[in-house]
Design a protein that fits this description.
- It is a single chain.
- With 144 residues, the chain is mainly α.
- The chain has a single domain (2-132), classed as Rossmann fold, CATH 3.40.50.300.
- The protein is built from six helices and two strands, in the order ααβαααβα.
- It has helices at residues 2-7, 9-37, 69-80, 84-92, 97-103, 114-132, and strands spanning 63-66, 106-109.
- A two-stranded parallel sheet has the order 1-2.
- The longest helix has 29 residues, at 9-37.
- The radius of gyration is 17 Å and the shape is globular.
Length: 144
């Protein structure tokens, strides 16, 4: 199915029209539950196609996990057991990283060693906690 979706933009858009509304309904419900509980001042939501799906307005801040396109292709091919050609097709279906990087509040370079990555993540986490400390409930703008 993935081969078809990433090879045929119209098929991909059709699938997205079917799946995205339900995904967003569930996400908003979960975030509202977290907000009402008052137990979590921050909610982290992983949305691989945040910008492509037009969902930037659903979140307060964006953390981009960055890797070069070549590294993304290598990782994707290895993870999904697909050819590099297929991985490139998937990557080309996304907004270019330079555009995503310009739209993100924070960028973490994932091509560094574990210590370097941990340092970056800890620094971002400290900033998130500092920003969220004055907020009540879940730190998001999701609507129920």
């Amino acid at each position: 199915m993935a081969e078809l979706i990433f090879r045929d933009p119209q098929a991909r858009r059709s699938l997205e029209r079917i799946t995205h509304p339900e995904i967003m309904r569930r996400l908003r419900a979960k975030l509202e539950d977290l907000k009402e509980s008052g137990e979590h001042p921050v909610a982290l939501v992983v949305i691989p196609l945040l910008f492509e799906a037009g969902l930037r307005g659903e979140v307060d801040r964006v953390l981009l996990a960055w890797a070069s396109p070549e590294e993304q292709v290598r990782r994707l091919a290895r993870r999904d057991h697909i050819t590099e050609e297929s991985a490139w097709s998937r990557l080309k279906a996304q907004k270019p990283l330079a555009e995503k990087r310009a739209l993100a509040e924070w960028v973490v370079d994932t091509e560094v060693d574990q210590d370097g990555l941990s340092e970056q993540v800890e620094a971002v986490w400290e900033r998130i906690q500092a920003e969220a400390s004055g907020c009540q409930g879940v730190y998001n703008r999701a609507r129920a």
